[in-house]
Amino acid sequence: MIPIRRKYLGIALAAAGLIVALLFGIAAYALRSGALKPRVTSALADALNCDVSLDTLDVQLVPVIKVTGTKLSIRLRGRPGLPPFVYAERFTLNLGLLSVLRRHIETIHLDGLQLNVPPRWADSLALAADNSAAASPLAPAPSLVGRALYGVD
Fold first, then answer.
1. Structure confidence by residue, pLDDT tens digits, 92-130
2. Across-strand partners of 87?
3. Within 10 A of 134 (CB to CB), how many other CB atoms are there?
4. Which residues pair with 72 in a beta bridge?
5. How many angstroms from the chain centroid is the CA of residue 133?
């Protein structure tokens, strides 16, 4: 009886390992840069009501989940003459497994960060020209990470 139990235990462990490898492969395919970059820029643009551009976006899953990108530029929508409101030459997001489940970012590192706050009159002119009761483009976005990574609010 004991050898039969070991045989089934071995089969069960091999099947579990295969399932984990398959899930890891699916996650790696879904998080490839070509598919993730448009989703992230679109989610940021919608959440911040700004024009967002991003040069590169890479995701590393092993040994920890790490998202790196270069040349993040956030511009006020409809104001191309102004410099970017936020510009980062390089950024890194570190995520743990539990933090992903909680939808929380552990650390963010920004290299070459530039903040250009336009004069108050420039913002009021942009809003007046828009003729809409939309929220200010500088309003906080509490569910930004959820939208960018998970596509939910």
1. 988 887 877 788 888 999 999 999 887 766 555 555 555
2. 73, 114
3. 11
4. 88
5. 28
